[in-house]
Every structure is written in structure tokens, then in C-alpha cells.
Amino acid sequence: DAGVIQSPRHEVTEMGQEVTLRCKPISGHNSLFWYRQTMMRGLELLIYFNNNVPIDDSGMPEDRFSAKMPNASFSTLKIQPSEPRDSAVYFCASSLLGEPRNEQFFGPGTRLTVL
Amino acid sequence: GNSVTQMEGPVTLSEEAFLTINCTYTATGYPSLFWYVQYPGEGLQLLLKATKADDKGSNKGFEATYRKETTSFHLEKGSVQVSDSAVYFCALGLDSSYKLIFGSGTRLLVRP
After folding, report:
1. CB A111 within 8 A of CB A10
2. Are A93 and A4 in contact (CB under 8 A)?
3. pLDDT tens digits, B57-97
């Protein structure tokens, strides 16, 4: 299996621009998580999907952030407009079931820099 | 509330030294406990886990025992290698929730 695939791996953009991060979970997994990692705040859960349905988006920082999962094999995280404080590494993870006993498989991350 | 506390890093060791990274937790109910590792430039990957008290998780020479009496899940390795240099995250999960609660991470640097 190819594992969780994220694109792009690196993104540099200017403040105010729209940014779209993409994720392809492991085939057969029904749970998908978006995380953000920064030095200051560590690893934060942004949103959780189960069977393509957003279950908990309480971690999404504000209305500038949105996430979709149109089908079982694709998800996007969009930031519009982007701000310098959004600079971070964004991880997508998937698991077979949403239960915490099930291993979460992380993608390699997208390093976002907003100038 | 539910939380995980890890020792502050970085931890710097010489190759073949003994490693301990402390992790304690606070949780309602009976959590499962995990150690994830993040190598430079990569995402997190599961290193080991334990789902009930007194269970020992082990993988790649690393071990951790679920101690309910001390609410701890310390990570140990008898002889570290340079390739073990990474950030290690302790985490807990509750059956009542899909969330994993991560500690802040401990950076390990192993020198040749």
C-alpha cells in the first residue's frame, strides 16, 4: 500500500492567497483526520471525518479554514484567505475505524509557509 | 480532563546508551496508550501501544509498560542508535472518543 498521500509537500504563498491541501487516505480506511503541527502549539487536531462525513470540526481555527471529503479516497483542507500565522506543517491521517485503539497512519505532511 | 505529560527535551545520548522518556497521563475511564515516532521530515508513525493495565508494548527494541497505579507509560530502550534520533510522542485514546490526545513530544538526539 502506498500509505497516506499528501500534496503538495511544500507550499509557499503570500498572505491573502487561497491555499488548498490535498490528502488521499489509505484504501479501505473510513476515518480521516487533519492535524496542524507548530512549534508553539504542538500537534492539534483540526477536523475528523468518518465515512466521509465531518464529525468534529471544533479544532478548525476560524472560518478561513474549511475541509471537505467528497469521497472515500480524497479530502481537501482549504485556507482562504491565508495569513502568516497559518504557517505550519499540516498532516492528514487515516485509520480503519475511528476508535482510538486503531492505529492512525499519517501522511508525510505539507509544510505551508505564508509570507 | 484528559491529558498527557512528557518530559521536556531535547534528550541527548551517546550511541548504545540506555534511554528513558517519561510519560504520565490523566484520563477518565480506561485509556489505551501509544508511543508515536516522527523522524525528520516525515509524519508520525506508531511505535508501540498498550490497551490495558500491565500490558507491555514493544517494537524495534523499544518497550513501554502500562502502569495504572502510577498513571505512566515510560518509553525505554536498552541501547540507542543514531538512527533512533527523532521526536517521540506519547498519546492516549479513550473508547468513548475517536480522538488521540498527544503529549508535546520529546526530541531525542543520539550522537555517534
Report:
1. yes
2. yes
3. 999 999 999 999 999 999 999 999 999 999 999 999 877 66
Cβ neighbours around B63 below 10 Å, total: 17
> What does the pLDDT read at residue A98?
58
Q: Which residues of A touch B87 (CB under 8 A)?
A: none
The label of the residue with cell 500565522 reads A85
Residue of A nearest to B100 (CA): A100
CB–CB contact B98 A31 (8 Å)? yes
**In contact, B32 and A101? CB cutoff 8 Å:** yes
Report chain A's mean pLDDT, rounded to a whole number.
92
User: Quick one: cell of B37?
Assistant: 515516532
The beta-strand segments (E) located in chain B are 3-6, 11-14, 19-21, 23-26, 32-38, 44-50, 56-59, 62-65, 75-77, 86-93, 100-102, 106-111
Measured between alpha carbons, how far is A80 from B98 in angstroms, rounded to an integer?
28
CB contact under 8 A, B93 and A43: no
pLDDT exceeds 80 at position B53: yes
| Cell of residue B24, nine digits | 504520565
Q: B98, A100: Cβ pair inside 8 Å?
A: yes
